[in-house]
Amino acid sequence: MELIQLAVPVLLKGLWMTLTLTAISVAIGFNLGLGLALMRGSENPWVSGFARGYSTAFRGTPLLVQIFLIYYGLGQIKFIHDTPVLWWIVSEGSRCAVLALALNTAAYTSEILRGGLVAVPVGLVEAAKACGMSRMVRFRRIEFPLAIRQALPAYGNELVLMVKGTSLASTITVLEITGYAKRLMSQTFAIFEVFAIAGVLYLILNLALIGAIRLVERRLMRHTQPAAQSLAADAVQAV
Amino acid sequence: MEFGLLQVWEGGWIGAILRGAAVTIAVGVASMIFGLIIGTICGLIKWRAVFGLSQLVDLYTSVIRGVPELLIIYLLFFGSVEFVTKIATAFGFAELADAGYAFFITVAAISAISGAYSTEVIRGALAAIPKGHIEAAVALGLPSRRIFARIIAPQMLRIAFPGINNVWQTTIKDTALVSVVGLQELMRTAFIGAGSTRNPLIFYAIAAIVYLMITLISQVGFNKVEAVLSPRKAS
Amino acid sequence: MKLKVLSLIALLAGAATGAQAEGQLKIGTEGAYPPWSMADANGAVTGFDADVGNMLCTKLAMECVFVVQAFDGLIPALQAKQFDIIISGMSITADRKKEINFSTGYAELANKVVVAKDSDLAGITEIPALLAALDGHSVGVQAGTTHAHFMEKLAPTATLKSYGTLDEMQIDLANGRVDAGFADASALQSFLDKPEGADFQFVPVNITSTYDPTLGEGIGVGIRQDDTELKAKIDTALCELIADGSIKASSEKWFKMDISRPCQ
Q: How far apart are CA C39 and CA C33, in angstroms?
């Protein structure tokens, strides 16, 4: 009990860092991933080839290797050291973690979104073309909304994996939940208790995330529900 | 910083990295096999909705899927010792538990993770088997063991195969995490090399390439098997 | 086929952790803390800790097997019976004594802070002034060490960066990611002697356990609490090695000075 009183406030300090790491890297990674997914559809073999190679490289190697390569590997290159903007990114563990996580999730996101884009019925796109919509408008109004609806469940899984991935930032001096848990472990040696509490924190965080995704999913799929039920669902959400 | 590949070669690191890669593959394959066994049992429990057990399986998969792998490894590695030693001794494997402890606990941790993901894949595959096939087999009076061997297992394997491929890719990458607790696998070797030669860039780059080779080559193998398993196209 | 796979796994497991035999003494050590404990590509361990371990094994007529393990995992792994003793430059502290037993202390070293030559900390000569000046600076320490606990307690306003190994901390010092490093004098001296340590220097302050007990009472061999028989044997052997000058000779080889501690 005493241990819980000691550990929970410390681990909650780490929770904030875990949330920040996740939010920033997901925001960057989603946009990169979207770009890569569009590149995959390009008719230029170099462009689509780059996107495919990127995705293979980042999905084929462990995140831990990517984090170490960015933190310790890039820190070693003189050019990066001498370029203030690059050094600003690489000089701090948390920024390296964000960079690694963002690049990693971009690869997975691109695969998920590509799956969604491929599933958009050709007829709908042709109809939009026939209506005279420009490429941008077509993408914004037809392809993207349909693709995201299709991709949402898989993207939800990816978000959970990202929350879990932030724990690796502890290996490069970042104090998030796992980093604080390790510090507590070497102070108290109460290994099981400390890691169990940390585990519960992650579990709660991920369950909340999954719940939020389900709500979004329900909202996006409103059109498949009978009208009355949809209203009821909205009412429940409003409460 | 004038560190070239030559120094990696002369320091005997190439051999060390290859040995590390062998340990990584051994851990990955062993964990995948145990994970599939766990996944098949738990998947069947969930598919049949066995009361009580099914809820336990739900708890197991949501905990593993919701908690970072790194934490699970720390917890099992440092927290489970007495327990594992007792079990191993009870089954007469005291020596084994002693000698290969790091390997043993690593495989246990990665299998537990891999098993949770396999459970979902297998459950999904079982659910996708047409009910009529099983009903027809029951109507023919086949004993349940033969229904499993002849009807359920072959279809399950074929449907689950792409999912199993994904689980394998995740499993082999998860083995990198056990480097933090000391098993001398690929990542750990790169880590020691990076520290002692002060050249992290080249060591982590080599590690990345070796992992990529493992995942790419196994991918080719999986694709071949998948082609064999997929139903023959009518000519 | 199954048998083949199993025996291959057993073989690899053996290769990875060291096969078990009668009369072996398994020693947990960090392997990344020069000149105490350094592991090479083949897993062979050298350094002062390795010397002490080998001398102990000779005295006890046992075969030494070194197991390399991150420092902050050494005590849990000892309790996990992954090895029999810890020899890894580990200070004897009150907190650690709650978890494991220690042999008599066999060595003692002063601790120092290392900074860049142009740092505003470089000229400080008093411990309290140094601790106060660390406010707002980042200090690198190794996770789970007495140095980490010392800084957590006495410089709470400094940004503490914990590294798994001292090698990583030194890479970061050289890269300019961390303002100061705190460790024992010998480990930091080996950093200053390297090319990447050329722009660094010691803050001219010796920080010893007399200033604060978090720094412990010398370096000892870590032993499980229920291994009283082993502790008695190791204490006797260590006292003999200290008395006949073997520990002194080895420390002079690695540290260029005598860091042995009289047997108590």
A: 9
